Amino acid sequence: MCSSGVCYQISTPQLPWKHRITLRFATLLYNTSLRSDLTVNRRLLNFIDPKIPSNHDSTHSVSSSDLIVDTSRDLFLRIFTPTPTAALDESLPLLPIIFYFHGGGFVFGSADATSTDMAARRFAKKLCAVVISVNYRLAPEFRFPCQCDDGFDPLKFIDEMDDDSLLERVDLSRCFILGESAGGNLGHHVAVRASEYEFKRVKIIGFIASQPFFGGKERTESENRLCKQLPLTLDMTDWFWRAFLPAGEDRDHATANVNGPNGRDISGLENFPATLIFAGGLDLLIDRQKCYYERLKRMGKDVKLVVFSNAVHGYFGFADLPEYSLMIKEMRDFIAKN
Asked: Can you give the pTM of this predicted structure?
């Protein structure tokens, strides 16, 4: 046990070679796409992680379809629905909804990127839930608060939908937010806004933050110790914040440093959902994630922290790792409990 939650000690201290090679190669390509003038080589990024269409036919027991929210900002939802099987019969209770926000430092990724599509599809199958993957705008072309607006508006869109045919098997009173890395940061701010909004049907009852991306001007011990740890280095996080935050703002901006002097006090938000946080012992962000856990606890929130002692940032991208299976088990238990 860790002093700040549940700690899993995995017997294998290092990633398998194939994953280490993948991470090293991917990190090299991603770093190459980040230019010193705070622009991004999108063509290279699209080569690394190409976009794929939705698939109405069942793939890995999950079908997908796209739903347009706002064409002017390319805001769309990719909806993943588990197909009925012997284990998931149409006569069973309605499925929960998971609003899913991909990671990528607010700079990489999209709902139709291959990696995001695969991740969301796995979640839909393994968690027996309808996963709604949100295609939010990216920095540096679009800075804060664009991402937060794009994250929250789909909740209102689903709440106000007249055509329920796409969501006929879901329970709108059992909605969860799931965010990975930058998506975990975004998920926090969407959860805060949702706590203050009066929905007609949608009810957010849980927030799952997997290695949420938080920052701050003062370096933490883990940031200094793990500053060169792949796949997320300190130089990369600094680049992401400069690209994402409003011009002239630093890492103590309330959006980046939710635990800092400008971070919002949410102790009065009675509807802030129960929260499950995942952290990795080899992730330079772990100290900030632990501080986030402690802050929510002090504010009287229902929160649990799970630490995988040997996990690097982005372990959730490797479904064959033992940490991934344990993460899915924790998520299932969390969803069943709420």
From this structure: 0.94
